[in-house]
Design goal:
274 residues; 13 helices; 2 domains
Length: 274
């Protein structure tokens, strides 16, 4: 759970499935800290709000229940009509609004909806909210970029050290592979790293979809990127296909030995499984 400050009001937000959800409960405190639930419900009973929420769900939520939404829309504007975030979610299967309980409980909404709520609260509040939210997201992206660069530097450092264990990853190419002329340069890299061509992989894995590279580990993908650059240099130097394959295979063995033991690569592998 992250926080931002807008006009002296602390507002929580979190990310879920690449989408950001902002606390309407915290935002409502800007208007009246004692009646936050009433403020949200008063906003939700408005016909324009119902129309906006329904359209957003239709555009972003294939499971949205349109019949239940139509019932809410018909009642909107009546003096007797009331609507809570919980009833909206339960009856329409909406995903744009979320009611949470516990320590960080309250009503949260997708940023598109949260910005609409902010407009209803105060134009000034909305402008400052968007500005502060964008600043924090830019800061998160810069931090992420720095972390990626830092890990890549560490990984490349490991590649260039001399701490090499004496075992082969992958296996050395066979003389038959070394002497074969390949129709695709991609297959030279496949043999150097995976020990087989794309066609050979498909033949050995007839029940699998995709190709050999779709099943590569993070370490193999890092190594493959390096091999692609080296192969381009070897082609420029005029090396034969067989010589290039032999050299690339030796380099793959060297790098994979280091990469499989690298802590940064292990973290990438674990993150990809989450």
């Amino acid at each position: 759970m992250s926080k931002l400050t807008v006009l002296d009001t602390t507002v929580s937000y979190y990310s879920r499935e690449d989408a950001d959800y902002i606390s309407l409960t915290d935002m409502a405190r800007y208007r009246d800290s004692e009646r936050v639930n009433y403020i949200i419900q008063n906003w939700m009973r408005n016909r324009n709000t119902i129309e906006f929420l329904g359209l957003w769900e239709q555009l972003n939520n294939p499971g949205f229940k349109g019949i239940e939404f139509d019932a809410f829309r018909r009642q909107a504007g009546l003096n007797s009509f009331t609507l809570t975030p919980k009833s909206w979610v339960e009856k329409t299967d909406a995903v744009g609004v979320v009611s949470k309980v516990g320590r960080y409980g309250g009503t949260y909404a997708h940023k598109d909806i949260a910005f609409e709520f902010a407009s209803w609260l105060s134009v000034e509040f909305k402008l400052y909210l968007i500005k502060e939210f964008q600043r924090l997201k830019d800061e998160e992206r810069r931090q992420l970029g720095w972390d990626i660069k830092r890990n890549l530097v560490k990984i490349n450092y490991r590649i260039h050290t001399d701490a090499i264990e004496e075992y082969l990853i992958p296996k050395a190419v066979t003389p038959a592979h070394a002497s074969r002329v390949y129709a695709s340069e991609a297959d030279i890299l496949n043999v150097a790293l995976f020990g087989q061509t794309a066609a050979e992989w498909r033949q050995n894995n007839s029940g699998e979809r995709g190709n050999v590279r779709d099943y590569a580990t993070a370490a193999q993908l890092v190594c493959l990127s390096n091999l692609e650059n080296l192969n381009a240099l070897f082609i420029k130097d005029g090396l034969s296909q067989g010589d290039r394959l032999t050299r690339l295979n030796a380099i793959a063995i060297h790098q994979m030995t280091l990469l499989t033991a690298d802590a940064g690569i292990k973290r990438l592998e674990e993150a990809s499984k989450e």
